[in-house]
């Protein structure tokens, strides 16, 4: 059952495997180790992937059933970063689709997207204007890609871009497995003053073929709390924080609404990406952050000790 799920999806979290096979994560982890010893799959960052190199991209039907609880928590927290009357861009993905469902309740919002699923989630929202890019439909994730999509974004300026992807590392930033999707995501980034990445813990430390957002352009990461045993995800969170990425953990213990992981000292970037946007969320920092006190280094340190 485990091997079949990994073959079908390309990458599956231990949490999801345990849920499907109705056993504990400890048992699943033991079985994954045995399959890895036979060369049938690779363990990676709280989950299992097909053996060898970069992970391949799963289709939408497979992605929509992965880490559903984590995506819901991430979307809830990300929606709280959006203020009434803002203009934003939302990229394609199952996590951003969850975000769009919550944005339907934000009045006066303008959402620019290349995702049919995001547009569908907002189609009947009152007082939310949806602007779609042009482009060629990519059926595997219901997204518009290609030169038409990129050209329609030229000259656009919004306050925030909300993007997902296939992997996230401190070294390369956000990445995806498809060249056309990566190119459109880069155009979405150029249109925004701030970039918010939505990525569950299974994507932390995973690297895929095409970079979409380098780490120094990521303003904030919204993620879920890694399992206590997932030291690699915690290490990646710390590395991202050390590079100045603001980190918000959805559903953190003792704080269901999520909390920010204090970052190290931020180096401000030139240009408008770090500039002030009216109506900013309390989580935003547009200036260099002071070195946090030991008690405040918090969230990452607490996670690491578990």
TrEMBL record:
SMART domains: DeoRC, HTH_DEOR. The keyword Transcription regulation applies. SUPFAM superfamilies: NagB/RpiA/CoA transferase-like, Winged helix' DNA-binding domain. Residues 294-306 have a biased composition (Basic and acidic residues). The keyword Transport does not apply. GO terms for molecular function: DNA binding. Keywords: DNA-binding, Transcription, Transcription regulation. Residues 1-50 form the HTH deoR-type domain. PANTHER family: AGA OPERON TRANSCRIPTIONAL REPRESSOR-RELATED, HTH-TYPE TRANSCRIPTIONAL REGULATOR SRLR-RELATED. This is DeoR/GlpR family DNA-binding transcription regulator. The lineage of its organism: Bacteria, Bacillati, Actinomycetota, Actinomycetes, Kitasatosporales.
């Amino acid at each position: 059952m485990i091997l079949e799920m990994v073959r079908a999806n390309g990458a599956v979290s231990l949490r999801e495997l345990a849920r499907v096979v109705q056993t504990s994560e400890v048992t699943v982890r033991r079985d994954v180790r045995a399959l890895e010893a036979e060369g049938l799959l690779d363990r990676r960052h709280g989950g299992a992937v097909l053996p060898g190199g970069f992970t391949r991209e799963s289709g939408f039907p497979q992605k929509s059933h992965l880490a559903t609880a984590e995506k819901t928590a991430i979307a809830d927290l990300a929606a709280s970063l959006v203020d009434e009357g803002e203009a934003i861009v939302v990229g394609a993905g199952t996590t951003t689709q969850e975000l769009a469902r919550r944005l339907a309740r934000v009045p006066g919002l303008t959402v620019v997207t290349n995702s049919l699923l995001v547009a569908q989630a907002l189609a009947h929202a009152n007082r939310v204007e949806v602007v779609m890019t042009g482009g060629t439909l990519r059926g595997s994730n219901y997204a518009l890609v290609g030169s038409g999509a990129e050209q329609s974004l030229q000259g656009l300026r919004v306050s925030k871009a909300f993007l997902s992807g296939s992997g996230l590392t401190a070294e390369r930033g956000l990445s995806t497995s498809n060249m056309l999707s990566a190119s459109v995501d880069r155009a979405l980034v150029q249109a925004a003053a701030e970039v918010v990445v939505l990525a569950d813990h299974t994507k932390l430390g995973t690297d895929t073929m095409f970079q979409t957002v380098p780490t120094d352009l990521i303003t904030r990461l919204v993620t879920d709390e890694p399992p206590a045993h997932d030291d690699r995800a915690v290490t990646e969170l710390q590395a991202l924080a050390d590079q100045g990425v603001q980190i918000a953990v959805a559903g953190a213990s003792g704080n269901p609404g999520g909390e920010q992981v204090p970052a190290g000292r931020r180096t401000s970037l030139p240009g408008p990406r770090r500039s002030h946007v009216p109506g900013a969320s309390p989580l935003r920092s547009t200036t260099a952050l002071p070195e946090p006190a030991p008690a405040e280094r918090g969230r990452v340190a607490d996670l690491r000790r578990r």
